[in-house]
Design brief:
Structural class of chain B: alpha/beta
Radius of gyration of chain B: 25 Å
Helix content of chain B: 40-55%
Structural class of chain A: alpha/beta
Number of helices of chain B: 23
Largest interface: A-B, 25 and 23 residues
Number of strands of chain B: 17
Helix content of chain A: 40-55%
Strand content of chain A: 5-15%
Order of helices and strands of chain A: EEHHEHEHHEHHHEEHH
Number of strands of chain A: 7
Oligomer: heterodimer
Chain lengths: 284, 575
C-alpha cells in the first residue's frame, strides 16, 4: 500500500451544495434498506446481480418516504425556498457494474438523488482482498468521510441503514468521529476491532483528521440521527450497544419517527403506513 | 374484406373506374385514356428504377413493360381493355383479405401471447403473477364517445379518423375496437408497415389494404379511392389516418389529407342512389396519445432533416425491430405509462355533429336531413366541386377535434416547459443551433422549472375546463413536482438516452431532439406565455413550416376541375 492509498470505491456527485447550506443531508444504504434485497445465499446474490430494474423491489413504503424526504419539511423548506430539494446520497456496497440498474430503479420509483457511492469489487478482487467483498466498515467510513469533505460545514447528516450487516456500527463510528469523540488511536482501535486492515485503518484515521480540520463538527456532532430498519419483522441483532441508533421495525415506524422530528408531514406517514400494511397483508 | 366480397369489389372497382374514365373522355376530352395509361407507365418505371430486386418488383416490372408494349399499337377497344387490366392489377394489390380464422386467433390467442411477450423478458415477474397476466387494458385507456360510436356502427358505416404518431397506432386502434365490442375495421396501411413480419401478418389477414405511397400514378390513386368507396358501400367500417403519415414532429397534425375522407361522400351518394338499407356514413375522429412513442427518434430526425414529406418513406425504423417493440411494450407496462385513445364527437360527412340516434344536428342543435346536401332536382348526384367543399369543411372539423381531444401527459408538459425555458435562455440561437446545445448547458434549477411547470399546468387546466384540450386524469390534480417526477421517470428509461434527466437539484435534457419532439405535442395551445410570462416574446414554433417560411408538407390536392353544367336528366349518364 502506498502513502496515497484510499479504499477503492466509485463516487458520483451530481450537485454542489452552497457553502451556507445548513439543512439536512439524507444518506441511505441501498440493499435491504431501500431495496428489498435478499443476500443470504449465493443464489440470492446471483439473482440480485442479474435482475433488471423493473424486477427490483423497494421495501414497502420506502420509495414514498424517500420522495417525501427529498421534497423537504412540511413547514419550511430546509435551507430556504430557493435551496432546492433536500440532498439525498446513497452509499452502497453494490459494485459499480450495477450502477445503471440501480439508477434506473430509482428513476422508476421517481427518486431523484445527488450522489451514489459504490464499492469497487473488481479492484478488490484484483488486489486479492477477498474478505473485503463482504466487509463494509472500511468502505462505508471512507465513503462517508470523503463525501463529508464536499458537504457544507453546517449541513447535518441523517443516516439510514439496516441491521443485516454493519450499518449500526459504521454509522455509530462515523457519528463518534463527527462528534469529536473518536480519532487517532481510539479510532484505530475501534477499526481494528471491526477487522479493518492496517492500511485502511491508517487511511481512515488520516481522513477523519482531515475532515475534522477542514470541516470542524459543531458541538454535539453533525450527525442528526441514525435510523436502522429491521430486515426481519421480529427479532434481529441486539443494537443496544449503539446509543445513537434509532431502531425501526419498518418504514411506517421510521416515517412516524421522522414526522416527530419534523421532517415529513402526517399525510406521508399515512401513505407509508398504508403501503406497509398492504404489503404485510399480501404476504412475502 | 371478406373473401366473398373481395373479388366482387375488385371487379366493381375496375368496371366503375373504366366507365368513369371513358365517360370523362367522352364528356370533356380533357384527357385521353392513352395519356392516363402513359402516366401510369411513366410513374411506375420511375418508381421501379429505385425499387429493389425482389420478386414483387420483378413482377411489377414485367407487368408494366407488358402494358407499355401493348400501348404502342393499341386501338380504342384495346385501350379500354388495358385500362381495365391496370386498374384491376392495382385493385388486386390494394385489396386486403379478411380471414375470420386469423381474426379469431388475434382476438382469442394474441392477447395471451402478447401478455407473455410483455413479460418474457422478465420471467421472474411472469412467475410471480401467474396465472394472472397483465392486460393491455391496464395501459390503453379508452375514452370519449364510445357508446355513440357503438350505436352508429349499428346504424350505418363508420369512418374512423385517428391521429397518427406511431406504427403501433393500427394495432392499438384494432385492439381498442375489439375491446369496446366493435367489429373489425378496414385499415389503409402504408406499405412500410408490412416490413415488420409480426404486424404484417395481422395486417394481411385482418382486412388491411395496402397503400403504396411510392406509387404516384393518378390511376393508382383513383383506384385506391374507388376501392375505399366500394368498401364503404359494402358496409365495411373504414379507418383512415387523415394525417396521411405519422406526425414527424410529434405535434397534432397541422394538415389533413382529404382524398380518402372524400370517399365517404361518394359512397353516401351511391348508397342513396341505389336505395341502400343503411346509407348513412359517419366520421369519428379519434386521438391517440402516447406518453412514450416507439419511433420518436427516427421521426424527429426525419422532421429535422426536412425530409418528412409524403415522398420520403422510412423503410426501417424502430418499429421494424422486434426487440425495440418488445422493449417499448415492456416500458409501457413496467412504467405504468398510458396510451389514451379518445373517440371524439361523431360527425356526418358535412362536418355536423351526429348523435347516437344517427341524426345530424347543426350548431344550434336543430336536426338536419343530410340527404338534402347532395340532392339536385330531387335526385342524389355527384358534384366534384361541391363535394370537395363539403369534405374541406369536414376536414376542418376533424382537425378541430384532434386539437380539442388531444390528451396531454406528464411527458408532454414537462418537455414543453423545459424546452420553452431553454428556447428563451438561448433566444439568440435558431432551432437547429439550440438542438446542438451540449446537454450540460441545458441544466436548469429544478425550482425554476417547477415554477414554470406550475404555471403551464394552471393554464392547461383552464383550457381543459373550456373543453379546448384534455389532460391525463392521473395528473389532473397533481403538483408540478409530481408531474416533473413522472416525466423524468417515463422519459428517463425507454429511450437510449434519457430525454429528461435530473442531475442533483437541476433538470436538463439528455436528448434535445426528443425533448423537442415531446414538447411539440403541447404546442399550438398558447402555453408558451405561461412558461415565462414576464420574458420578452419569442415566436412560437410553427410546426407546419420550414425555417424559411415555406410549408413543410405538400399542399393539399388541387380542387377538381370545374366541369360544364350537366343538362337536367343526364346526370346518370355522365356519372
Amino acid at each position: 500500500m502506498t502513502a496515497g492509498y484510499r479504499y477503492p470505491f466509485e463516487r458520483r456527485t451530481l450537485r454542489a451544495l452552497p457553502p451556507s447550506y445548513a439543512g439536512p443531508i439524507d444518506i441511505w444504504d441501498i440493499d435491504q434498506t431501500y431495496l428489498d434485497t435478499r443476500l443470504g445465499r449465493l443464489r440470492d446474490l446471483v439473482r440480485t446481480a442479474l435482475e433488471s430494474a423493473a424486477d427490483k423491489r423497494a421495501r414497502p413504503g420506502v420509495a414514498t418516504l424517500l420522495r417525501a424526504l427529498r421534497g423537504g419539511a412540511p413547514a419550511s423548506p430546509p435551507g430556504g425556498p430557493a435551496a432546492g430539494p433536500v440532498p439525498l446520497f446513497f452509499i452502497s456496497a453494490s459494485p459499480p457494474q450495477l450502477r445503471a440498474v440501480l439508477e434506473e430503479k430509482m428513476r422508476l420509483d421517481g427518486i431523484a438523488w445527488d450522489g451514489i457511492a459504490l464499492k469497487d469489487h473488481l479492484a478488490l478482487l484484483a488486489a486479492r482482498r477477498w474478505r473485503e467483498l463482504v466487509r463494509h466498515v472500511a468502505y462505508k467510513l471512507t465513503a462517508l468521510l470523503t463525501y463529508r469533505l464536499d458537504w457544507p460545514p453546517g449541513a447535518r447528516e441523517w443516516l439510514y441503514g439496516d441491521d443485516g450487516e454493519s450499518d449500526p456500527r459504521i454509522y455509530s463510528l462515523y457519528a463518534g468521529i463527527r462528534a469529536g469523540e473518536l480519532g487517532g488511536e481510539a479510532l484505530r482501535a475501534q477499526l481494528a476491532h471491526s477487522h479493518v486492515t492496517e492500511a485502511d485503518r491508517h487511511a481512515i484515521v488520516a481522513l477523519a483528521a482531515e475532515t475534522a480540520r477542514l470541516c470542524p463538527p459543531p458541538p454535539g456532532g453533525s450527525v442528526e440521527g441514525i435510523f436502522i430498519l429491521r430486515t426481519r419483522p421480529h427479532g434481529g441483532p441486539d443494537l443496544s450497544e449503539y446509543p445513537r441508533v434509532t431502531v425501526c421495525a419498518d418504514a411506517a415506524e421510521l416515517a412516524r419517527e421522522l414526522h416527530r422530528r419534523g421532517r415529513i408531514d402526517q399525510q406521508t406517514v399515512e401513505r407509508v403506513t398504508e403501503e406497509v400494511r398492504r404489503a404485510a397483508a399480501a404476504g412475502p | 374484406m371478406r373473401a366473398e366480397d373481395r373479388e366482387r369489389a375488385i371487379a366493381e372497382v375496375a368496371c366503375r373506374l373504366v366507365a368513369d374514365k371513358v365517360a370523362a373522355v367522352a364528356g370533356d376530352g380533357l384527357e385521353s385514356l392513352e395519356a392516363l395509361l402513359l402516366d401510369a407507365v411513366y410513374e411506375e418505371r420511375l418508381r421501379l428504377e429505385q425499387a429493389g430486386r425482389d420478386a414483387r418488383a420483378a413482377e411489377d416490372r414485367r407487368f408494366i413493360e407488358g402494358v407499355r408494349q401493348r400501348l404502342v399499337h393499341a386501338g380504342p377497344e384495346e385501350l379500354k381493355a388495358l385500362l381495365h387490366e391496370v386498374v384491376e392489377h392495382y385493385a388486386r394489390e390494394i385489396a386486403g383479405n379478411f380471414d375470420p380464422r386469423v381474426y379469431q386467433l388475434a382476438t382469442r390467442v394474441v392477447p395471451g401471447l402478447l401478455a407473455l411477450l410483455l413479460n418474457a423478458l422478465s420471467p421472474q415477474r411472469l412467475l410471480e403473477r401467474f396465472p394472472e397476466l397483465p392486460s393491455l387494458s391496464t395501459n390503453v385507456n379508452v375514452r370519449g364517445e364510445v357508446e355513440v360510436l357503438r350505436r352508429l356502427a349499428e346504424r350505418g358505416t363508420v369512418i374512423l379518423c385517428p391521429t397518427h404518431l406511431s406504427n403501433l397506432d393500427s394495432p392499438v386502434i384494432g385492439w381498442t375496437l375489439y375491446h369496446v365490442g366493435l367489429p373489425p375495421f378496414l385499415y389503409g396501411a402504408g406499405l412500410n408497415l408490412f416490413s415488420n413480419p409480426l404486424i404484417s401478418f395481422f395486417m394481411h389477414n385482418l382486412g388491411a389494404y395496402k397503400v403504396d405511397r411510392k406509387k404516384k400514378a393518378r390511376l393508382y390513386k383513383d383506384t385506391l379511392k374507388e376501392y375505399c368507396t366500394v368498401s364503404l358501400e359494402y358496409g365495411y367500417h373504414n379507418l383512415f389516418f387523415p394525417g396521411g403519415t405519422r406526425s414527424r414532429s410529434g405535434g397534432v397534425e397541422p394538415h389533413l389529407k382529404l382524398g380518402l375522407l372524400g370517399c365517404g361522400l361518394r359512397a353516401f351518394v351511391n348508397n342513396l342512389r341505389r336505395h341502400a338499407e343503411r346509407p348513412d356514413i359517419y366520421v369519428v375522429p379519434a386521438t391517440i396519445s402516447y406518453g412514450l412513442v416507439l419511433e420518436a427518434e427516427t421521426l424527429i430526425d426525419d422532421y429535422l432533416k426536412e425530409t418528412g414529406r409524403a415522398r420520403y418513406i422510412i423503410e426501417d425504423d424502430e418499429s421494424s425491430r422486434l426487440s425495440r417493440v418488445a422493449s417499448f411494450f415492456r416500458g409501457i407496462v413496467n412504467l405504468d405509462s398510458r396510451i389514451y385513445v379518445t373517440f371524439s364527437q361523431p360527425l356526418d360527412l358535412f362536418g355536423n355533429r351526429v348523435e347516437a340516434d344517427g341524426r345530424s344536428y347543426d350548431r344550434r342543435g336543430r336536426p338536419i336531413d343530410t340527404r338534402r346536401y347532395v340532392m339536385r332536382g330531387g335526385e342524389p348526384v355527384h358534384d366534384p366541386q361541391r363535394d370537395a367543399e363539403y369534405t374541406r369543411e369536414l376536414g376542418e372539423q376533424v382537425r378541430a377535434a384532434f386539437v380539442r381531444d388531444n390528451v396531454l401527459q406528464a411527458t408532454h408538459l414537462a418537455a414543453f416547459t423545459l424546452f420553452e425555458m431553454l428556447w428563451r435562455r438561448f433566444s439568440e440561437r435558431d432551432l437547429y443551433h439550440l438542438l446542438r446545445t451540449p446537454p450540460e448547458l441545458t441544466l436548469l434549477a429544478v425550482h425554476e422549472v417547477r415554477a414554470a411547470l406550475d404555471r403551464v399546468l394552471a393554464r392547461v387546466r383552464e383550457l381543459v375546463a373550456q373543453s379546448r384540450l384534455r389532460l391525463d386524469p392521473r395528473i389532473h390534480d397533481a403538483t408540478a413536482e409530481a408531474v416533473l417526477a413522472e416525466a423524468v421517470r417515463v422519459l428517463g428509461t425507454y429511450h437510449p438516452r434519457a430525454v429528461l434527466r435530473r442531475v442533483g437539484d437541476r433538470v436538463g435534457a439528455g436528448d434535445l431532439n426528443l425533448l423537442f419532439y415531446y414538447h411539440n405535442r403541447a404546442a399550438g395551445y398558447g402555453l408558451e406565455r405561461a412558461v415565462v410570462p414576464e420574458a420578452r416574446a419569442v415566436p412560437a414554433f410553427d410546426l407546419s413550416r420550414r425555417p424559411s417560411g415555406e410549408p413543410l408538407l405538400p399542399p393539399s390536392e388541387p380542387p377538381p376541375q370545374i366541369r360544364p353544367p350537366v343538362p337536367a336528366g343526364l346526370e346518370e349518364l355522365v356519372a
